[in-house]
Amino acid sequence: MSDTHVPLRGEDEPEQLREQFRQLLRYRWLIGGGVGVGLLAGAWLGITGADSYAATTDIVLRAPTSDPFAPTLSSDKALNMGSERQTALSRKVAEEAAKRLGLGADEVDRLQNGLQVTNPPQTLVLHFSYTGSDPKEAARRANALTQAYIDLRKEQWESVQGAMLKSLRNQLNPVAKQNDELSQRLKQLPDGSAADSAYAVQANLLSRITDLSSKITGLQMLDMTPGNVIRNATAPTSSDGPGLPLSLGLGGLVGVGLGLLGAWVRLIFDPAPRSAGDVARAVHGPVLGALPRGSAGALVVGRTDSRAAEEYRSIAFRLAYDERFADRRRLLVVAPRGSMESSVAVAANLAASFAETGKNVLLVEADLRTPSLSERLDVSAAARPRWSSTVEPAEGEWPGPGKLLVDAGESGAFGLVPGERVRNVPRALTSARTTRLIAEADDPDATVVVVAPPVLAYADALALVDRVDGVLIVCDPRTVHRADLVRIRELIVGAGGTVLGAVTHTDSHRREAAARRDSRRRAAKSPAVRPAARPDTRLETERHIDGDGSDTIALRTVRSGDR
């Protein structure tokens, strides 16, 4: 039997995806929370967007030019659309629009916040969109903002034009005055070299005057219109929001995505085993069985037709075919930490399953702190076993001189050595009487099942590992950490034992706590030993001689009809 169940390397990807999805579903509360948040956000968006109306206008920008039909003119090089967009969104435009609308200064920020300006790629178009609660008011404000932008840009262009004209006129006036003065002098000069020089200077002045005059004329002929409105805003007939149904749908989809993301992050950082494979890798042993939900702390001894009983039979058969267990037939059942309810139930039910196969089974309750098995099982007094010496044990010593017989119904019967409260637990577990008790498994037809307190809570189980070297770990993957399972395996191997495998269950903490409370109530109300066996069975003793010549008495169950 292999030590671990490792997935095949050739496992197909769809199976891995299904396994990961099943692991994500462990965190349904995260997924549900994400869906809830998404739906709330979608509802808020749908409700707030129902009273939101967007009015839009479009402007085609143009650069100042004297000939708009000139093929050499490139407006896209003369205009920076990014700068124009920022100008349209500026507070200066909002203030001018507020004046046009007759709004106060306190409305400028609200007016500016409601405006959006975009520039479609590869165009000279500015798209103005104003969002408001009233459709007519939204259209009015969109038009006012558009006109305010056009007026501001026209004012800016005209301001630049005026400054340039002023500069050119300032240059032209001195040159014109100098030319007039030179013309008066030429009238008084006689013909000759002096007159020729004066005419040459006048020609230069006239050329300069002509150049400056042409520039002034060109600037005066420029069309300073910054752009044309190609679409005016009208009152929108429908709200700008996506609507409540669509908002809820989008919110639900986004919420599912957020929930799955949160579940994935939680799964990544979850210290608990994600699957049976994680448990197998942590304990270096196979997962021999997974108990049905709700049956971890239940004793199904005597009920052979339940689903849990079938699972215990499967676990018992798998152990029987494991050479490590079959050679010595000693089994130690432990839990990682917390309650013993699950490990006690597994040990008792496995004992019944082994008895059903014809083995002489002895169940040892090595819980010397809070023993409870004798109150939970249908037991009766049995004959003195071989492990009990002729010398009576001292008061408070464990195990006592006798054992109990558990009636497992159709499965047969098995012996029980109940736990007892002792003053020194480590000494009792390592005593010679305990060693002789576990040595019952030396008989080829005998099997000893020992249940001990949780490994990480007490060292009781480790004190038994050197004699009961086959260990079965019972755990709930949702409540135990992978590091705890690894530590348990290291402790068991370090003490000289072997982890035969693990049994998983999915009971909650509340159910285990309730089971513990019920156990304490039964212990307080019930007698320590139930006196009567089942009416269809009777107990007989038989004497036989051992190989060493000693005379011992063994217990045999006789059913009605058997002779």
Automatic annotation (TrEMBL):
Basic and acidic residues bias (residue ranges): 506-517, 533-547
For the keyword DNA repair, the answer is no
Query: Where is the region Disordered?
Result: 505-563
Please list every transmembrane segment annotated in the UniProt record, as residue ranges.
27-47
Keyword Membrane appears in the UniProt entry = yes
What's the domain of life for this entry? Bacteria
What keyword terms does UniProt attach to this protein? Membrane, Transmembrane, Transmembrane helix
Write down what this protein is called.
Lipopolysaccharide biosynthesis protein
